[in-house]
Amino acid sequence: MRKSLIVMGTLLLALLGGWYHYQHHHFNPNTYINQVDVSDLTTESALKKLEKVKINNQLYVDNQLIYQGKKLNTGVTPSDSGYLKQLLKKQASFFPNHKIKKFYVPAMQKNFERNQKLEQCLTAYLKSENHKRIRPVNAYATYTDGQVKIIKEKKGDAYDIAKMLQTLKRRENQGTIKVKSQYLQPTTSKSKAVQKQAQFLKTLLAQKATYKVQGKTYDIKAKDVITSASYQTGKLSLDTNNLTGKIMQINHSQATFGKEYLFKTSHGTKIRVKNSTYGWKLAPAKATHRILTALIKHRRASLDAQKDLYGTGFYSTGTGYKHLSNHGLGTTYAEVSLTKQHAWFYKAGHLVASVSVVTGNVAEHSETPKGVYYVGYKQAPTTLRGRHTNGTPYASPVKYWAPFTVDGCGFHDASWRHDWSPKAYLTNGSNGCVNIHPEQMSTIYHALEPGEPVVIY
């Protein structure tokens, strides 16, 4: 009896040992490597099978096949023997484990051409599908009717292409790749970002700035000049029509560009003149931008409008901003009477020169233009070049030159002129300039200043 028990025990141990040996040298049922069934195979047999077999080359989005290519090698080579042994050891168990187990042996060399094709295919498919789908709308902060509110988010069903491409890249060694749908998610109303945006609008609307235009100061309150606002996906949008309107009001009351007014001439009469290139006005876009920037940055700023000026002619930033008297002309200016053929030059309110002149030829339609201009620059000496009304060119050397229009009208000496009579301008005038006796031009030239107004009537 005892002998029988010993024999039976020995046989049982042998069976158990053999079973243990089998289980630790064969893969469990339902074991897959690189999508190939290696159930009950040794590592040697599994390696041979993996080297030989071809696997599908497919790409799915959920259950939708979107790419089918030529079958592929598994990518497993004899050098992967050690890796297979590690997998065998990892899944080994004393009792058979029928649970499905999927392992992947990373390829030694990536199939860049295939991977690129799969990425292009997935991207094109998802973009095409997204044309039919609805993108989510992020929650955002808004200001209307005097209140800051948060508009709730709206969900959509558009694919999140970036995340799905990441899934594809993680599985690029697989033959059949399945990518699950992932959808773009909106920023919610409870997110810190949206709450921060709402607080930003509240803070913004409490801001104010002072805006100085010449000697007058304007208090600009954000809540008065911003009628509505939204802060969405990091982009701030403001309705600033009220602020633009405020700038236009200031221009109407203070700006001198294009202004028409009564001018008292040197011979005592009052005439109506209009600023042509002389003068300044606030550039609405520039002024609005500066004021809003100060409000947005939460600075209780004091801004000087001098940085926001606009003008034409030689200077794009205007002229005469610092002159408050005499309709913005100040006390230093030049005055030209076309009918009297006379010019007066004032400096700091004092008459420094009163001279006879010859202006543009009336008969040839080269009249000196009427209006209020300004001296662009001074040059001494120089040669004036251009064409007569008949088309012939001229080159006239002068000792002193002070233009007041960009197309070439200005003050200069005229050594070639012999006819200085008061009627000379009617048939024998200049090409548009104001001709001055050479012996008088030096004093006038040195009295003139760039930016000085020139009143011609």
From TrEMBL:
This protein's superkingdom?
Answer: Bacteria
Name the residues annotated as catalytic in the UniProt entry.
H412 (proton donor/acceptor), C433 (nucleophile)
What keywords are annotated for this sequence in UniProt? Cell shape, Cell wall biogenesis/degradation, Peptidoglycan synthesis, Transferase
A single Gene Ontology CC term: extracellular region
SUPFAM superfamilies per the record?
A: L,D-transpeptidase catalytic domain-like, L,D-transpeptidase pre-catalytic domain-like
Q: Tell me yes or no: is Glycoprotein among this UniProt entry's keywords.
A: no
* Listed Pfam families: YkuD (PF03734)
GO biological process: one example:
peptidoglycan-protein cross-linking
Transmembrane residue ranges? none
Q: What pathway, per the record?
A: Cell wall biogenesis; peptidoglycan biosynthesis
Q: Which InterPro entries match?
A: LD-transpeptidase, LD_TPept-like_central_sf, LD_TPept_cat_dom, Transpep_catalytic_dom
Is Metal-binding among the key words of this record? Answer: no
Residues in L,D-TPase catalytic domain copies: 332-457
**One MF annotation (Gene Ontology) recorded for this entry:** transferase activity
Query: What Gene3D superfamilies does the record point to?
Result: 3.10.20.800, L,D-transpeptidase catalytic domain-like
* Name used for this protein in its record: L,D-TPase catalytic domain-containing protein
Source organism phylogeny? Bacteria, Bacillati, Bacillota, Bacilli, Lactobacillales
